[in-house]
Structures are given as C-alpha cells and as structure tokens.
Amino acid sequence: MPNKIFLKNFTLAAKKIAVELIGTVACGMAIGLLVAVAANAFLEAAASANQYRTSLTWMKLNLGDQSYSLSGIAALLLVATTITLLKKLLKIDHWAGPADSIYAAHSENSSLDTKKGLGSTLAALIVTSGGGSVGLYGPLVHFGSTMGLALKTSLRLRISPDIFIGCGVAAAISAGFNAPLAGVLFAHEAILRHFSLRAIAPIFVASISASAFSDFFYGPSANTFNLLQVVPPLNNIFPILIALGPIFAVIAVIFMYSLRAAKTFAGKSGRYKPLLPFVAAITCGSVGVFFPEILGPGIETINELIEGDVSSGKIGALLIAKISMTSLCIGFGLFGGVFSPALFIGVAAGSLAAAAVSLLGYAGTEQVIVIAGMAAISASVIGAPITSVLIVLELTGSYDYAVAAMLAVIISNLVTYRIFGLSFFDRELLDRGIDMRLGRESIALSQRPVTTCIGSSYVKLDSRVTGDEAFSLMKKAGMVESYVVDESGNYVGKLDIFSAISASSNNVSNFLAVKPITLYENESLQTAMAKTVDFVGEGIPILSADKRYLKAVVSEGSIFQAVIDVQNTVSKMEKV
C-alpha cells in the first residue's frame, strides 16, 4: 500500500512538472514568435518608408551647389494628420509606452488596454516612418507587454501576469536589437525590478525564441556596429572614461528635462493643444531640411558618427537638433520612443568627447569613447545600466568594448540618479503620482481598497438616543465604542462608553468624539496606514465615498493583517 501511494504521488508530481515545463516553453515560444514577426516587420517598414521618403527627387530643392529635400515637412504634416485622426478614431486620451508596462508589471491586478497598446505602437510606426525624430523600440516594448498579457487570456497557465509582461518585453528587445541576453536583462532590470526563479525560465525562452525566429524569417544579422579600433589597456583609458561619465550624465539629464518641458508646455496649451502636432511637424521637418540626419531612427548616421566621418561642428549641431526636435515631437504629440534618440544623442556626445580627448593627445581611443557615450546616455535615460552594457556586447561582438563602456555607464547612472531619478520612465510615472522608488509593496497597498479589511461587529445608535440607552446597548454588546447615525442613515459621529455615561439621560449628540479618525470606502490600505498611525481606540468607521453613510467598522488589527497579507504576497512573488 505505501508503495502504491508513493507511486501515485510521484506520478502526479511528475505530471504537474511536465505540464508546467511544457506550458512555460509554449508560452515563451508563442510570445517570442508573435513579437519577433511584429518587431521586425515594424522596423523594416519604418526603414523602407524613410528610404522612400529620402528618394523623392521631386521634393528636392537646389540652391547653388547644395540640394535640400522638403520631403520631411510634407511627410510629417501627413503624419500629424494621420495620428490625430487615429487618436480620435480609437478614442485614446494619451498614447502608452514603457512607463505603462512598468506600472502594469508592478500592479496587483496587471492590466493593459490592448487597443491603446496596439494603437500606440501603430502611431509610433507612422511617426517614425514619416521621419519623426523619435524611436520605435520603446513602443515595441509596450507592444510586447500588451501582447504578453493578451496571450494570458488564451493560455491557461499558472504564470502570473507580470511574467507575461516580462516575456513580451524581453522578446521585443531581443528581436529589435538581435540581443537575446539584453532582452532578458532589460525585462528584469527595467520592468520587473527583481529576479526570481519562476520568472527567469519563460522570459529566457521568449527572448531566445524571438531571436531565433528573427534569424529564421529575416536572416541572421551581423554586428550592427563595425568597430576598427582596438581597445587600449584599461589602465590607459580608465581615467578618461571616469571623467567623461558625469558629462554624459548631464547631457542625458538635459535631454530628459527637455522632454518633460515640452510635455508640460503642451499640457498648458489649452484649446491650442490639437494644433501642436502640426507645429511639431513643421518645425521638425524644417530643421530636417538642413539636418536630414535627425529625421527617422538615424541608424545610418549613428554608424557614420562611430566611423568618424562627420566634422565636430556638424556633430554639435546634430546633437542640439536631435535633443530639441525629439523633445518637440514627443511633447507635442508626434508619439514615439526615446531609446533610439538616446542612442543617437549618446553617439553624438561621445564623438564630441572623443574629438576633445584626441586633441589632448590621446589618439586611438575615439571609437571606444563614442561607444561609451552611447551606452552611458542610453542607460541613464532608460534606467538599465546592465542592459546597456550587454547591448554593447551583443551589437559590437566585443567584450573589451563592453567592459570599457561599463566604466562610463556606472558613473553616468550614479550622477543621473542623484539629479533626475532612476530613468525617464520612472519620472513619467512620478509625474502621475506613482513613485516607483517605494517598490511593489507600496503600489499594491495603494491599489488595495480599505474595504478588503475584515470588518468588525459594532454598535449602531440612532442620533435620538440618550446616554443611558447608549450605555446599555454598548454594555450588552461588550463594546466601549458605538457609531451614531441619523434617521436618514447619515453618519453623525462616534461615541465612547465614558461619554455615554456623562450624557446620562441627555441626548448623545453633544457628547460625540471630536474629530475621530474616519476612513472612506474609496481609500487604499496605504492611506489607512497613514491615517491610523496615531490611532487609539476600538474601531475605525469606514464611510461611503460621499462621506455620508456608515459602511463598516474595522479594527486597527484588521488593517495590519491586510497589510501583512500584501507583504507576504509581494515577498513570495519576488523571491520564489
């Protein structure tokens, strides 16, 4: 008999493990396939559209020996019209990006609006294809997280929603950059913000699958950046990269503050806000007439800057133009990502720094400094230093370049965090009143309503009773506090047993507690904890949202228990 029981338990356990394993692999592969196809299709569509736009010879204007193209202005005006109509058609109040994915991954009931997610990615594709000075990788990250959550509804697996989000994010980075390791790290470092055994397996499968499917359908890609210089010994470049770290941080902060300033201005524009996308289109297109390199993703220009084929004067102009036009586009409604612009700005800043260092006699370090600038500024913007170093490793195929870049990345991120915050996405959430620095537990407490606390039994009194009657009722119930309501059921106040004794044969209305602590049904556990920090008493009334009706009474202990339950849930989620 014991052998049969053991065999039965072993069979059930083995079956459970097999189902979980197959489900994990199937989930990762499904998300990897979907996101890989979509990401590569979007990136190729944007590249083809920009190539077609720049090839329109009838849009070119010749002035002397110089040729200028007006295609950027025309294309961006068409883009502004298209996404304005798209926004109205989809009834979207604002576009969604990585910040929304981060918040959803940390929310107790993870949810993302599929329509908004797909619409935002389409909007970014339209803007990027039309030459907007924005990126597509950030929207692809949100697309991946949206698709991950959408698949959860059809795959009945014991995998939490945040892991589906992580799978989609990892697949998007892996397919977009052909960097599966960076995809895994980005999902954990920037989105989930923790490492756990339950999350690593499906996210790894999704990231590797996305890379494998990209290679299968679109062919294997070579290293994105071709680097000709050999990295000097670290002891020779260590001081240089350490000194440049704060400079790169300041440039990243200027970029992020510019983005916020443009959004703030747009938010205060009132009835003129619908015109802002067209203002951005005309302005960005006009600047693009003289600096066409800032239009679109700018990958070709990044390679030119790395190869050192552009003069320092033009690089400085491109740096200023890219920062200002990206801020204008995103702030004024030409939606897109900040990752690609951050790479562009990083390479431009690194090129200027390399030119300055070369003038000081340190030749042969130019490409190392350029890559370090790219990694440092992009890491500061997205808040993922380890991911940025791995992207350098996977895009260059050079371990030495990755190690060298890590020096600038570390210093830049430290300075950026002190001045601005962890990332641009975290600052976006902070502007909405969501402080990611407080962690997953704080967010869970802010989302859990106080009504989830177990209610206590209590004595409800009519406002017309006397003190003697109130005392009798409380004594019978074995309680020292009661709650008074009028004939309409409106909450009047709180009465303790000592005040009831004092009232004696008088009406209790004049003996109620002065400003007792009260909670409201639409308040969170986090608010309840803050309100009850100095509470002394038997119970706390919970009133209706309109502050009129008594809904329940909770004890301080029940609030503490609800908080402990949240803490245990978060701890299990982040450690198992």
Low-confidence region ranges? none
Integer average pLDDT? 88
Please count the beta strands (DSSP E, at least 2 residues each): 8
Whole-number tally of structural domains: 3
**CATH level 1 name of the largest domain:** Mainly Alpha
Order of helices and strands: HEEHHHHHHHHHHHHHHHHHEHEEHEHEEH
Query: Can you tell me the overall shape?
Result: elongated
Our measurement of the CA-to-CA distance between the termini, rounded to an integer number of angstroms, reads 34 Å
> Mind telling me the CATH superfamily name of the largest domain?
Clc chloride channel
Care to describe what's here?
With 576 residues, this protein is mostly helical. The chain has 3 domains: 2-218, Clc chloride channel (Orthogonal Bundle); 234-438, Clc chloride channel, CATH 1.10.3080.10; 448-575, CBS-domain. It is built from 22 helices and 8 strands. It has helices at residues 2-54, 71-90, 98-106, 114-129, 137-152, 161-177, 180-192, 197-218, 234-267, 276-290, 299-307, 312-331, 339-359, 366-382, 385-396, 399-419, 424-431, 439-447, 467-477, 497-503, 525-531, 556-575; strands at 60-63, 66-69, 460-462, 481-485, 491-496, 519-520, 540-543, 550-554. The strands form 3 sheets. It has a 3-stranded mixed beta sheet. Strands 6-7-8 form a 3-stranded mixed beta sheet. α19 (467-477) links the parallel β3 (460-462) and β4. α10 packs antiparallel against α12 (312-331). It is elongated. The protein starts with a helix and ends with a helix. The model has no long low-confidence stretch (mean pLDDT 88).
